[in-house]
């Protein structure tokens, strides 16, 4: 299967005053195949968000390379982002911060459409895709709940007709009852539009629902990679097993998760 | 400020009613809370009735905006300024019987909260003071409420930190919040809450900001403290999986009222209320992870 996004021995370090550099991402090799949903899970500080930011050119690499569609992803500078790299789009964790509070929804989605040449779908269609009415376009972000804002952020990302959609903890700031719904929505839209989805989350039980493959990350490295079923049912790595054992299950039995 | 409903005066005398047996814990009755909005008062709580018995974890579930956090705050008299609170919050601890916390004057209230009723919040980096050492934050209220000497309070703090399994407690006393991880800080916040041996502990989303593996440890700690100290724990969270693993009974809140309250197994497996059912149906459908060797570990808990 051809890969849309390929990470080859990627490393990202942060400088720390008075201490050794922090290797946030430490030699990650990973491929996001065409049309697949790849879940990337790990605990806070494991480097998963850094990896996502690197994929968009937001973090300078200290080693390795990231290739999109066969060509390297260059670091985002002050100038315009190259046309071809606009086919990588991102949905961020906090929809309260990622939408501009002072502009109408419609014009923010319009920005995404203008970012690429070609016939991007009209705003109303994009909104319909994420389950919102067309009149939403005339309104402002503050008029919407967190779940609705995240839908808007997804519509905006889709407006640029991405080939790769990256969700960096897109459900972490939502109510529990919404998390599964928004995650499934992202998966459905991605598969309908033929977009590859890199879905980053700390919540294995949600990722399992939507991902074809799951990569487990710890301390900057991928410790396990396999199909969702394999990783869930037969984890090979000890850390994955610990992560799975710690998930509380709503079975009404009062079973405390292993810690 | 808070006002008392009618008929509270006779609540002071022990009436040999149905539940006059010597139960311990917290009983919330007809709790309403309204705040003044742009167009008249808006009701946040519309008559909450809930009993939180000692030695049990009572879960309070609901989506954001359902009023679950406000319920916890109102019990401590921490409602927003200008809010109108009515109803009764009866507290029956080992040391103290309060017929209605809501009718206390602020001086009396200050003797109750922090001592008989303690609270743990979601974000320990916000609930602990960044510029006061852990030792200072674990001894201040103990000296105030229990009148301990500085030396005794320090020894007490060490034993508290041992109690919540913070490593190297003596050294920890002289360190500051930024030197600890989120999970350790939440343990310290819990230590601070139980420092005066309260009878009621209100935990508002205590594990929401934590990673799953850390969450598991904190949940075990809460359960342990509840069982060992006979605390009446009110656990406020939107996470039904967390509820299912640590709460004995679960109350589901919707739009300022409790729509269902029952045994955790009944609420999760056979919800009677439509809203509860919709909450449970929205959870990801996942069979338990099938890692063989870990199954035993999962079931030996409790």
Q: Would you write up a description of this structure?
A:
The complex is a heterodimer of chains A (259) and B (302). Chain A is an alpha/beta fold. Chain A has helices spanning 48-55, 95-98, 105-114, 123-129, 146-159, 176-193, 204-210, 228-233, 238-245, and strands at 3-16, 19-33, 37-41, 63-68, 71-72, 88-91, 164-168, 196-201, 213-218, 221-227. In chain A, helix 3 (105-114) runs parallel beside helix 5 (146-159). Chain A is globular, with a radius of gyration of 18 Å. With 302 residues, chain B is of the alpha/beta class. In chain B, helix 4 (134-146) crosses helix 5 and helix 5 (150-163) crosses helix 7 (182-193). Chain B starts with 24 loop residues before the first strand and ends with a helix. Chain B has 12 helices and 10 strands. Chain A binds chain B through residues 43-44, 146, 175-181, 202-206, 208-209, 232-235, 241-259, and chain B through 63-64, 182, 211-217, 219-220, 223, 238-248, 264-269, 278-280, 282-286, 288-291, 293-294, 297-299, 301-302.
Please tag this protein with its features.
heterodimer, A: alpha/beta, Rossmann fold, 6-stranded mixed beta sheet, 10 strands, globular, B: 302 residues, alpha/beta, 4-stranded antiparallel beta sheet
Concise structural overview:
The complex is a heterodimer of chains A (259) and B (302). With 259 residues, chain A is an alpha/beta fold.
Topology:
The complex is a heterodimer of chains A (259) and B (302).
Chain A: E1 3-16, E2 19-33, E3 37-41, H1 48-55, E4 63-68, E5 71-72, E6 88-91, H2 95-98, H3 105-114, H4 123-129, H5 146-159, E7 164-168, H6 176-193, E8 196-201, H7 204-210, E9 213-218, E10 221-227, H8 228-233, H9 238-245
Parallel strand pairs in A: 3-8, 3-9, 6-7, 7-8
Antiparallel strand pairs in A: 1-2, 1-4, 4-5, 9-10
Chain B: E1 25-37, E2 40-53, E3 57-61, H1 68-75, E4 84-92, E5 97-98, H2 106-112, E6 117-120, H3 124-127, H4 134-146, H5 150-163, H6 169-172, H7 182-193, E7 200-204, H8 212-229, E8 232-236, H9 240-246, E9 249-254, E10 257-263, H10 264-269, H11 274-281, H12 292-299
Parallel strand pairs in B: 3-8, 3-9, 6-7, 7-8
Antiparallel strand pairs in B: 1-2, 1-4, 4-5, 9-10
